[in-house]
Design goal:
Shape: globular
CATH architecture of the largest domain: 3-Layer(aba) Sandwich
Order of helices and strands: EEEHEEHEHHHHEHEHEEHH
Oligomer: single chain
Strand order of the largest sheet: 6-7-8-3-9-10
CATH class of the largest domain: Alpha Beta
Strand content: 25-35%
Number of strands: 10
Number of helices: 10
CATH topology of the largest domain: Rossmann fold
Length: about 240
């Protein structure tokens, strides 16, 4: 089943054409990677999906609903979550409290005022801390975590809201090879619960975890297919491998 359909989307910033008639379909409960040279339009496409920018032309259909002009907060309530490349944690709060605020932001007030809800939130937060190897840092100020752990915390903050679609913009940026490998292992179980679209420059990382890849160059789709199909694509070899 298609959870996301991007149809003939274009986006211009002044005289710069960031996206030119881009169409991509993403299947539910899969990992879909967006790759391409710098300036190819990957992050712009992610922003169009999230609602940080609106498409000039075309449409974005999420879970069978046209969200092309929908506000970002409404998209979030409908099950779409985004983690940008730059971490957006609250450094002066504990790791635990960052997760608490993240999950509270997606819940109605009547749930938050019930003692039962508070207990359930605690259990859910502790489960998330365990999943993302942060349980021993629950009381640590988020700003004191290493860069890699801050990235894991922000992914956990996105996942704990139980999105249908999670957008990740370079989740392994600045990580060591060991941290990148561990990040891939942490992400894999998420596939049972939601779909991921990932922008990433680490080709080894993205090829290891993604089911399908879309390659962009200068705002246009070069090719889309499985990892093996992209590896064998003549169009990708001609454009992508000579420019990254």
């Amino acid at each position: 089943m298609k959870i996301l359909e991007i149809n003939n989307v274009s986006k211009n910033f002044g005289v710069l054409c960031a996206l030119d008639n881009v169409s991509v379909s993403v299947n539910a409960n899969t990992f879909h990677g967006l790759i391409g040279p710098n300036g190819s339009g990957k992050s712009t496409l992610l922003s169009i999906i999230a609602g940080a920018h609106y498409a000039d032309n075309g449409s974005v259909v999420f879970d069978k609903n046209n969200i092309t002009k929908t506000l970002p907060e409404i998209r979030a309530r409908e099950g779409l979550s985004l983690k940008f490349q730059i971490t957006a944690i609250l450094p002066e709060l504990s790791t635990y409290d960052n997760l608490l605020l993240s999950i509270q932001s997606s819940q109605p007030i009547w749930k938050l005022i019930s003692s039962k809800s508070k207990g359930l939130l605690h259990d859910k937060i502790m489960d998330s801390l365990e999943t993302f190897k942060l349980a021993d840092r629950a009381d640590t100020l988020a700003g004191e975590l290493s860069h890699g752990l801050q990235q894991w915390l922000e992914i956990a903050m996105a996942v704990i809201r139980e999105p249908k679609l999670l957008l990740l913009d370079e989740p392994t940026g600045g990580m060591s090879p060991e941290e990148r490998r561990a990040t891939g292992e942490l992400l894999m179980p998420i596939k049972k619960k939601c779909t991921l679209i990932i922008v990433e420059h680490d080709l080894d990382f993205i090829k290891d975890i993604c089911d399908n890849l879309t390659v962009l160059d200068q705002g246009k789709i070069v090719d889309t297919g499985t990892v093996e199909q992209i590896k064998l694509s003549k169009k990708v070899q001609e454009v992508y491998t000579t420019r990254v």
